[in-house]
Amino acid sequence: YMKHPLQNRWGLWFYKNDKSKMWQDNLRLITKFDTVEDFWALYNNIQPPSKLSSGCDYSMFKDGIEPMWEDRSNKCGGRWLITLAKQHRRTELDHFWLETLLCLIGEGFGSFSRDICGSVINIRAKGDKIAIWTSNAENCETVTYIGKKYKESLGLPQKLVIGYQAHADTATKSNSITKNKFVV
Amino acid sequence: GKRQYDRDFLLGFQFMPACV
After folding, report:
1. From the list B7, B19, B20, which residue is nearest A106 (CB)?
2. Which of A9, A52, A102, A137 could join A78 in a cystine, given CB atoms 3.0 to 4.6 angstroms apart?
3. pLDDT at B18 over 70
4. Which ranges of chain A have pLDDT less than 70?
5. What is the model's pLDDT at position B1?
């Protein structure tokens, strides 16, 4: 019996908000994997996002990409962002996160998967967030395709609009609202 | 070729023991 190799090797990261440490010291690579079987071995052994405490993140990125704007692969990119109201933590959060991971490891965006960098889930008291990060916010066709396919994969209703934000805009925003570069 | 797996295929392995 052979394990099923993935197209990419992925790293799973965990962030825990500890104000006594520097931001980057709070971010830890848990492990890397590159087969379907190893993905599940990992997934089945970690806390689901809904059980994490507020201020924590999981990130899953292609090997060699760190889950931060500054990484060379992310610098010119952006994210499709899903925000969840508090009451959806119990019902939707873990489900959305798993669907997101399956889209990534299964290369669910076809040839456009090349632009995928990774995904981040933020557990926050004011509302949880899940995002798919891509490498180039100017690749209109690619970004739009990924957004449409992602929305479909999560089973979101057509009329619900999700937005794509360039990291450059998020990083330089002066208030808490970042403008959407694309919407689907 | 590209190793693409759809969700149902991936979900089929969730509770399988990894032997290798």
Report:
1. B7
2. A137
3. no
4. none
5. 64
- Contact call for residues A30 and A39 (beta carbons, < 8 A): no
Does the CB of B8 have a partner CB in chain A at under 8 Å? no
Element housing A9 (H / E): strand A5-15
Gap between the Cα atoms of A96 and B7, Å rounded: 13
* A5 chain-B contacts, CB cut-off 8 A: 3
Interhelix angle A94-105/A36-43, rounded to 10 degrees, is: 160
Quote the CA–CA distance of A140 and A21 in Å, as a whole number. 38
Beta carbons of A1 and B19 less than 8 Å apart:
yes
Q: Would you state the pLDDT for residue A178?
A: 83
Give percent of chain B with pLDDT exceeding 70.
Answer: 80
Instruction: State the nearest Cα–Cα gap between B12 and chain A, in angstroms.
Output: 10
Interchain CB distance below 8 Å, A99 and B7: yes
Residue A64 region, left (φ>0) first, then alpha (ψ -120 to 50), else beta? left
Q: How far apart are CA A73 and CA A173, in angstroms?
A: 21
As a whole-number percent, the residues of chain A with pLDDT over 90 amount to: 86
